[in-house]
């Protein structure tokens, strides 16, 4: 990866932690952060030593969304320039969402606008009970466009519709109720909850987790027609015939740990 200025990336024992590192502006997005987060996601995706990825924010906030100075610059852009700029943000979210490794959002504080998009783009989201959220774009005469596929997927159309058009803030328990967060814990227990989740992921087959993510993208919101039935049969047949599938079944029958956990 190139020299990082707005994020940090730490890898330890198969766990990569990406930290948005602009605490003075509540980890708000600008061009540099978007580029660096995109590069980090793409680079880690290709690293076979990385088994799980945690995304979090430095300081009190997770991410406040768009940086004010960045927004001022965008105000002077043409429509074409704005589209090109927005496409980079869309590509950042896609890079995060398409990582083969499971991704865990460690939501340590406020997540507004694009910050909600980042939470939604992760596979698993665990938040401190003090975290607050808002899709606040309408307060500025804007819309949460590039992040919408992710939070609509997380919340569903009905709940997303409410918070998109109201721009109101909601707390961590509400975020859990509507599906944005999977778990809510006291702030002091956040690291422990994330560690427990990551430890659980580490005992799973890395290829099977990647294939589960691909499976979700392939079948979600599709009718269960002949093409889907054939595709899903092909996917399980491929995994049964894979080295990982054979090792996992053998380890289970032989009452030992599979080789991806250090067993064998």
Explain what this protein looks like in three dimensions.
The chain is α/β, with parallel strands linked by helices and 264 residues long. It has 2 domains: 7-202, 2-enoyl-CoA Hydratase, Chain A, domain 1; 206-261, Lyase 2-enoyl-coa Hydratase, Chain  A, domain 2 (Orthogonal Bundle), CATH 1.10.12.10. 48% of the residues lie in helices and 15% in strands. It has 11 helices and 9 strands. The strands form 2 sheets. The chain has a 6-stranded mixed beta sheet, with helices on both faces. A 3-stranded mixed beta sheet has the order 5-7-8. β2, α1 (31-45) and β3 form a beta-alpha-beta unit. The mean pLDDT is 94.
List keywords for this structure.
2-enoyl-CoA Hydratase, Chain A, domain 1, 11 helices, three-stranded mixed sheet, Lyase 2-enoyl-coa Hydratase, Chain  A, domain 2, alpha/beta, six-stranded mixed sheet, 264 residues, single chain, 48% helix, 15% strand
Produce a short descriptive summary.
This protein has 264 residues and is an alpha/beta fold.
What is the chain-wise order of helices and strands?
EEHEHHEEHEEHHEHEHHHH
Number of helices: 11
Report the CATH architecture of the largest domain: Alpha-Beta Complex
Mean pLDDT: 94
Largest sheet: 6 strands, mixed
In total, the number of strands is 9
């Amino acid at each position: 990866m190139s020299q990082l200025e707005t994020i940090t990336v730490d890898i330890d024992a198969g766990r990569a932690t990406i930290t948005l590192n602009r605490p003075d502006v509540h980890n708000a997005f600008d061009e540099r952060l978007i580029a660096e987060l995109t590069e980090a996601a793409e680079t880690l995706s290709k690293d076979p030593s990385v088994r799980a990825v945690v995304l979090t924010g430095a300081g009190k906030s997770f991410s406040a969304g768009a940086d004010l100075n960045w927004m001022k610059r965008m105000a002077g852009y043409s429509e074409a320039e704005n589209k090109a700029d927005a496409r980079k943000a869309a590509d950042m979210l896609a890079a995060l969402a398409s990582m083969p490794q499971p991704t865990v959002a460690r939501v340590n504080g406020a997540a507004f606008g694009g910050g909600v998009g980042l939470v939604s783009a992760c596979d698993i989201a665990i938040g401190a009970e003090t975290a607050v959220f808002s899709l606040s774009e309408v307060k500025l005469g804007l819309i949460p466009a590039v992040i919408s596929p992710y939070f609509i997927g997380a919340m569903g159309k009905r709940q997303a519709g409410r918070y998109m058009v109201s721009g109101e803030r909601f707390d961590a328990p509400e975020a859990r109720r509507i599906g944005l967060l999977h778990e809510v814990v006291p702030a002091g227990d956040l690291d422990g909850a994330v560690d427990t989740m990551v430890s659980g992921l580490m005992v799973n087959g890395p290829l099977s987790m990647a294939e589960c993510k691909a499976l979700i993208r392939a079948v979600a919101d599709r009718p269960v027609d002949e093409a889907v039935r054939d595709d899903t049969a092909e996917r399980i047949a491929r995994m049964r015939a894979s080295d990982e599938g054979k090792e996992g079944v053998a380890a289970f029958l032989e009452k030992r740990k599979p080789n991806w956990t250090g067993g064998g």
